[in-house]
Structures are given as C-alpha cells and as structure tokens.
Records
---
Amino acid sequence: MAIRDRFSKKLNCPQCGNTGFAEASEIDDPKRKHPDFKVDQLPRGFGVQRPSNHQESFMLKCECGRKFPFRSLAEAAAERR
C-alpha cells in the first residue's frame, strides 16, 4: 500500500473573507498517474463542489456561493497553532 502525504492548507474566500484550515492528503509516489488527492476535512463554511484526483482541478464552494479550485486559494499552513 502506498504512503499518503498529509498536509494542512489555509483556505481564503476572496468574495466574503471566509477562512479556515483544510486537511488533505495524496499518495506520495511520483510514478502514479493519479495522486488520489482527497480533502479529508474542510472548515465550516466550505464544501466540495467537484472532487478530483488532482489538487489543481478539485473544486470547492464557499457558503457565499463562490466556487474555486482548491489549490488556487490555498496556502501552506506553516504557522498554524
């Protein structure tokens, strides 16, 4: 079984300012065609619009109605406390 990389990302909605931390994971094997990207936990106010095997095309939806790709408005959560 492949090892999954787990990471946190801070989400920011540019329309309403809603923010929170998402927990995500993907398979850590560069030879795989699909990294099997998954959002394991989303903060309140965010939902999945369209799931995907890739971060770039995994679509989120904010409670205000704004839709956006996971990767476009997510930043590393290095300073999370």
---
Amino acid sequence: MNLTPQQAMRAAVAVPGVPRDEDGPVFREPWEARAFAMALALHEAGVFTWKEWAETLGAQIKRAQAAGDPDTGETYYQHWLATLETLVAAKGVATSDVLHRYRDAWDHAADRTPHGAPIELTQEDFGK
C-alpha cells in the first residue's frame, strides 16, 4: 500500500506519539512504514477508530514498560504492530491463531530466502 503524503501526515497527526518530522512520519525500517500503512488502511475501512487505536496502543506500551521496555523510541513500531494484531483479532478480522500462523510462515520463508531476494510465501512455509 502506498500512502500519499497527505494521508501519512493526517494519520501521524491523528495518533499521538508517531515519530515524525515536518514532512510526515519517520520510519527506521521498511516494515515500520508497512505497519503504519496497514493501520491507516484498517482505520479508513472502519475496522477501528483512532480513539480505539490510541487506547489500545497506550495499553500496549504500558504493558511493555512494565515488562522492562526502556521506552527509548526504538520499539515504538513493535508496539504499533502488537496493537494492530490486538485490534484485528478483537474486531474479528482474523483470529490470533491465524495471525500467528502467518507470522510463523513469513519467518520460515525469510529464513529460506537468500539475502537480497524477494521473500515469497509458499504452502511449505505453513508446515503441516
């Protein structure tokens, strides 16, 4: 999913705490931008409100801090991804089992893919 600069800035302003500069959200890794884009797409599809998102993200960050996350900002999008998974499961878009099954399959696909080659998910990545 490609975001227009206007969409990205609108979402960055709507959700407090999004790392950003004057041009919009700032990402350290490509997966962070993809997680951001997925959240925006699910919000625009009506899966959750920004209020629900902010409450769920806040709870996720508090749990992580209680477990020892140093809250340096480096794990922000890990919390973002966990929030996505929580809301997708809570809203019935996909079950936690399905999310974990696909995460494990992607991990398997990444492990077998040579560096620099595109990762392609196959049936073998799902195991049994």
---
Amino acid sequence: MSAEDLEKYETEMELQLYREYRDVLGLFSYVVETERRFYLTNSVDLQVRGADTGDVFFEVTMQDAWVWDMYRPARFVKNVRVVTFKDVNVEELAKSDFELPSDE
C-alpha cells in the first residue's frame, strides 16, 4: 500500500466518521472533550480529585456514549471512565446545535 493509498483510506474513514457523528448527534445531550478523545453522551459525571502528591486530576464517568475514533470498530460504548491530569471540557448541547448542513 502506497502512502497515497493510505492517505486516501484515512480521508474516507474520516468522512465516514463525520457522517456517523452527524447522524447520531441528535441522540445526545452532552459533548465531552478530553486530551485524547471526543465523546457524545447523555450521562456524564465529572469529579475533581486530589492525589497524595498534591496534584489535581479529573475522573470522568459516562454511560451510553459515542466516541469519535475512526480506528474503533464500535463507537458506541456502554460505560466509559477517563482519569486525566489534563483539562476536560463538558458542554451541554442546545437543540439548535443539532442543525447541521445537509449533503445536498
């Protein structure tokens, strides 16, 4: 497989992922962004924790989520637990956010 073939494959996978995202967006109420992943979910719990060393970290728990990851064979996950020292963004989606442009 040439570098051009690989790039074309990845571009097609990203387009398929975007289309899936567009199709499932209306099913969810929250967007959760971590340093590694982007999730859609209806149930999110964010806890700020302290380590014995004095460092602060975040524990994020989600149920019935969709994860933006083109390399996963199944993007719907029953339970997700993320522990990170990096920033976490949780945003509630407004119903007006569901208006995406059509392919036409």
